[in-house]
């Protein structure tokens, strides 16, 4: 729950008119940007605080510290003892959690609107008053190691993804997992966490997003009251990375206990940097919709339904991130089919995209899904706040959201064909294979179990 | 507001709270106005009219979950639901998915031991086409032979994969240990051997027997008028099969023998599940058990299990307990994952925490905290069309009172420490529970050894 990569779901983004109504912003003198999205359908509010500090800001040997700090943020301040943050939010009827990604770290509470001042008091307190003790650190690092075992070490698909990212990226810190390498977790200290906190947890490195049944002008006053006195800080200079060009296809295999093999193909791809001028990331978003936007989209229709070469397929791309982008195709071979056959089928789909492009009908279908998604989005205040916080944290700003929707609607069939040709090239490609291993000599026991009564 | 601030101050100081237990602030909150009728088809309809967003959500639920399977034909119920939208009398699977995608509509569904459902989200402007396709999916599925063969292969592959993953191995063994011969023990998607034998005839028979309008609940939420909702309910159910009610399920045996299965697995963590038959959706003890479970292991970061296992000792990332309320008693399930070497220590701690809770019940202070959260958080339960739609389905399917949402906070408010203590003692017997440990450490002793 506390760690995931948030893909801006552009394909469920949408039209300008509805979405961007009632968004207000104001920056406090200490640099904290406050953004309010009013939505009066239900008497609830969500507070999200987004810090522009994710795992990509970590240094070698200290991977995982962004996420460890996220856990420690619940472990008490000078004002609020360990565990009390969660107890007070719970007593106010609230739900809360936090998440860390490559690009940012964010914390949230959802509550009745009358409880917003409480949530702001607690959240602002831990922005500058965290009390990190060795005792809390040594307990919590064990929790994080358990989290790593659960999410990655014992999950064949996560393991494949982790190892693949470190093959895809040579220089960029996206090569390191958000949760950190186990050997780093074993050597991190409370002092590392304190250093991370001091460096990055500052109002001028954060965005506060409040969405729900609130009045923006009241929220701005509350923000000033609770966050306004936290001093601005000098932020470290961020490192810039230019991932060196990949000069040829890369391959890797990962062995793990599983039944089914899996094939993953990832191509380097651009992300948005100048949203008004860029066109390729929008065309890539639409391309992904044509390949995998519905059960009748190309990959499922051809590979799963018609040829029955794959039992499952998927495509991913995120046009909005701080670091470099990837277009990723995944497939699980059907029983009796090989990884080689599945790869050939995926390559055939790419070839036909490059050669014949996409039909007007396919283009319209994806655009219709985008427009509908924009309306459906209104049913989730939390999700609307997420989109705003994410766009702010990666440096594009929430005002880019309506622009992106316009640009998506303007993508042409030629542009889709062009990005497929430009980016779905072998020199850009990493191919990863999950090589399933038997659960060694225990197979028999697994089906029969090993029963005996407890005393 | 004032009252809860006072509580917070006292909690911080750690003082006794006996004097202030009466007063969790119950705010009167507008709950959605539920309209309810029986359609001419015989289906039960629950409707909330709301025009804030130009969209419509509809869900049709039928008593056709996996508990209507037999062991020999385990998987038929799930496959029937799965194939509904893969071909109808008018439309191919591709016509259906393309037809929905063209208008940005989303066809979905869910499936569990009790219920099979089909759901739709559509823009108001595209309602007619979306509902026409959905009506075909519900009422004229054809279960094409070739598609069944393809989907069987996919389900079998997924089942074989699940048999290698510790969480699913644990879940399957747990359901069997808790429910024994009762159909709630059957895996919802079936077994490899039984799925391989499924025929088109099996699906047609299952469909005809279970997908009758008299067993269907239609939930409608959003941008239509009541007259339109009435027509929609008819459109989606008038042509469902007519059939006599199938025989009632056997009762769940509430007392089970203690058991402990240790299943080897190369994973670095042990996956531990502990449980027993718990409560039904209409159990008179529903609210005491619900509130009690919040205290035991349901309340996020503030439950006893979370506090003992994670916060104090760092033994696990996730540890929880929950009741799965079904038509008949579903399981109380306690779960955690922890590295193999400390699995026995964690297991002992969880058992101790549970036994202590059942022996002594919660404290007044814990009950207060639970009520504050559940009552104070009530608005979050109904803050979107999606959530309200789900409540409509549950209320209709489980015959809960239409005033369920109106009564909710009052029922929570009236729960007492004694009621929780008694309800848990009646339902859960720590000496008669099933334990499953996948990726278990080598067994030396199963009890009586302290390793702290």
Question: Topology of this protein?
Answer:
The complex is a heterodimer of chains A (455) and B (452).
Chain A lengths: L15 H4 L3 E5 L5 E6 L5 E8 L13 H8 L11 H8 L3 E6 L4 E8 L3 H13 L5 H20 L2 H13 L13 H4 L4 H11 L5 E7 L3 H12 L22 E8 L4 E8 L10 H13 L5 H9 L3 E8 L7 E9 L5 H18 L3 H17 L4 H13 L6 H10 L3 H11 L5 E9 L5 H6 L2 E2 L3
Parallel strand pairs in A: 2-6, 7-11
Antiparallel strand pairs in A: 1-2, 3-5, 3-6, 4-5, 8-10, 8-11, 9-10
Chain B lengths: L1 H12 L21 E4 L5 E6 L5 E8 L13 H8 L9 H10 L3 E6 L4 E8 L3 H13 L5 H18 L3 H14 L12 H5 L3 H11 L5 E7 L3 H12 L21 E5 L5 E9 L8 H13 L5 H8 L7 E5 L7 E9 L3 H18 L3 H13 L1 H4 L3 H13 L6 H11 L2 H11 L6 E5 L14
Parallel strand pairs in B: 2-6, 7-11
Antiparallel strand pairs in B: 1-2, 3-5, 3-6, 4-5, 8-10, 8-11, 9-10
Helix pairs in contact in B: 2-8, 4-9, 10-13, 10-17, 11-12
Brief account:
The complex is a heterodimer of chains A (455) and B (452). Chain A is α+β, with helices and mostly antiparallel strands and 455 residues long. Helices cover 42% and strands 18% of the residues of chain A.
Give a description of the structure.
The complex is a heterodimer of chains A (about 450) and B (about 450). Chain A has about 450 residues and is an alpha+beta fold. Helices cover about 40% and strands about 20% of the residues of chain A. Chain A has a six-stranded mixed β-sheet, sandwiched between helices. Chain A has a five-stranded mixed β-sheet with strand order 7-11-8-10-9, sandwiched between helices. In chain A, a hairpin with a 5-residue loop joins strand 1 and strand 2 (about 35-40). Chain A is globular. Chain A starts with 15 loop residues before the first helix and ends with a strand. Chain B folds into two domains: about 1-235, Metalloenzyme, LuxS/M16 peptidase-like (Cytochrome Bc1 Complex, Chain A, domain 1), CATH 3.30.830; about 260-375 and about 400-440, Metalloenzyme, LuxS/M16 peptidase-like (Cytochrome Bc1 Complex, Chain A, domain 1), CATH 3.30.830.10. Chain B contains 17 helices and eleven strands. Chain B has helices at about 1-15, 75-85, 95-100, 125-140, 145-160, 165-180, 190-195, 200-210, 225-235, 285-300, 305-310, 345-360, 365-375, 380, 385-395, 405-415, 415-425, and strands spanning about 35-40, 45-50, 55-60, 105-110, 115-125, 215-220, 260-265, 270-275, 320-325, 330-340, 435-440. Chain B has a six-stranded mixed β-sheet with strand order 1-2-6-3-5-4, with helices on both faces. A five-stranded mixed β-sheet of chain B has the order 7-11-8-10-9, with helices on both faces. The longest helix of chain B is centred in the middle third of the chain and has 18 residues, at about 145-160. The two termini of chain B are about 45 Å apart. Residues about 1-25 and about 445-450 of chain B have low confidence and may be disordered. At the A-B interface, helix 3, strand 5, helix 5, helix 11 and helix 13 of A face helix 1, helix 3, strand 5, helix 5 and helix 6 of B. Strand 12 (about 450) of chain A pairs antiparallel with strand 7 (about 260-265) of chain B, so a sheet runs across the interface.
